[in-house]
Amino acid sequence: MDIFNLIFSFLYQFGDAFAFLVLSACGLAVIFGMMGVINLAHGEFIMCGAYVSTSAAHAGLPLPLAIIAGAVAAGIAGMIVELAVIRPLYQRPLDTIVATWGISMIVTQGTLIVLGPSMQGVGTPFGSFTLGGYSYSVYRVILMIAAVGTLVLLWLMFTRTRFGLLSRATIQVPHVAEAMGVNTNLIYSLTFGLGAGLAGLAGGLYAPTMTLVPTMGASFMVEAFVTVVVGGADIFLGTAPAAAILGIIKAALTGWQGQLAGQIGLLIAVIIVIRILPRGISGKILKERA
Amino acid sequence: MLRTSRGAASALGVLLLAGAAFGQDAEPIKLGVLEDQSGDFALATIGKVHAIQLAAEEINAAGGIDGRPLELVEYDTQSDNTRYQEFMRRALQRDKVDVVFAGFSSASREAYRPIVNQFDGLAFYNNQYEGGVCDANMIVTGAVPEQQFSTLLPYMIENYGPNVYTIAADYNFGQISAEWVRNIVAENGGTMVGEEFIPLGVSQFSQTIQNIQGAKPDFVVTLLVGTAQASYYEQAGAANLNLPMASSVNVGQGYEHKRFTPPSLKDMYATVNYVEEIDSPASKEFVEKFRAKFPDEPYINQEASNSYAAVYLYKQLVERAKSTELAEIRKVIAEGDVCVDGPGGQMCIDPKSQHVSHTIHLAHVTEDHSVEFPTKWEAIKPYWLGEAGCDLTVSDPSEQYTPSNPPPANG
After folding, report:
1. What is the set of domains in chain A, with CATH numbers?
2. What keywords appear on the UniProt entry (chain B) (predicted)?
3. Domains of chain B: residue spans and CATH
4. Is A130 in CB contact (< 8 Å) with chain B?
């Protein structure tokens, strides 16, 4: 019985870390992993999703709809940013760092000035359950389900829909796609919007569990970049296994020696992975397959 | 050396508060304000800036300090330690301010303190902190561990039980405060069943919550700093951790009870020298004045009250010294009777440590997140530094000491 509890608690913690890594990283995997834009405003798209979904929930929308509203708002914001700032920079990845960093600072400080230093949260729904002396939050189990669901939906979108096909074609060989009659500008815009929308989804999902402040996006950034860098360019062959491996490392080290050890473990894992797999897990898999 | 000069008025953020009430010749007294108006700490510190503006406006309306107008030179330090160093140098060297009110985190204070020493300036640190700074160039108006923990922990042990778990922010404030908790818990017959340090910026606490449940404490001491770490309360509440909490830093500073949905802060006990809920005539008057000037202020916290009172402490020091020179001001401090009635109670400067005595209020957050005050302790002195051997009236080591690293015995 005790063994069962131990296994369950580890699985719960692993699932919790996995969900956080997947949800923080999905949007970045699209924008940074696929499109090659080093998006330092990723955290601000997350903050946008969190703020919009919380405002919508305060306005009376049911929480699931409010979260979707946050994701849509962040997606639209992403498309506007793509059109106004990112579009001329696709061949200049280093310049995207400066541009998106600037956006990040403007948005953080603008939010502080316009909306004040914090926003009242909505509270975590669904309560808790108890198992073998430990109590667990039900909502965090829902976050795990949402993480897996997001991965499945993304996989279906990229492999089974026309948008997915055109998007992959456009990003792999833009001029050929264009020659075949694809409106590549639109596809770039929609793909960037999808990435920003996924970030907004992460924000909306985590908003009930966190402090809502203009700088909240920053606490997702390390995990998001670490996961995408370890995973490499492909979301399914990269982000998902990277989040699984890092989730195990983080849950085990945090349970054993506390938060500091968990953070250190995460960063050491990245250093090792970059050293032996310079193109991430998916780069390795795809190379072997080819 | 800190005489005021004209001509530096072009400095960024200079706020001329002087009205027409002053004569042409009354040279302003310049007060530098280095506080975080953006970044992770802004939430707790914007109120400090507003409190200083309020006090300056009141003082100028009533004829200034010794007939001279008070002028604020404000810089936004952006929750960034290097900004503190840049702006401290700029304030003391170029703006030639007479006094600086600076700093939220202990890391930022330790970043700028050597610069204040170098220019032999005077800085007020208006924040509760881990204690131990023995420096003649500093006046600390915030409460320190012997004031907050020697009152809080015996109360908690008596009412909830002896087993204590500490979670603390992983930098000098959290580490040294946790050392104080260990010592005072042991002195009161309690047991530490666990301790975890959380890096700043961490926002996910699922595993920490489980570690706490595994250790089965009677209450949790939370020394969390910054807005990211404040997510702990929501997550602990959602996981139904349901343990009483004790803190020297939460509620009074980051007003977590206002920001989170009840009942996530249920049974949080914090020792504060001020929060806006305190039901006294002085407190009510302060809240009224504050809200009249800043109607949108989300919360008037302990640090806002300290900053406000500190301006009046400085006014009294300058008027009694008839000078803004540090040596003259310190002669007045040495007389040992520099006191003001702050919004939370009387505050007097202790000449040995240049820290301040406080009325410590025990704030208890109830299930609906209203605050009640089960008890308070009057005139609690910042005794530790003096007893440990720091005496600024004799020598100025400009050091920060801790219980495990006390001042050298021969003083």
Report:
1. 2-283 (1.10.3470)
2. Signal
3. 8-143+280-359+380-400 (3.40.50.2300), 145-272 (3.40.50.2300)
4. yes
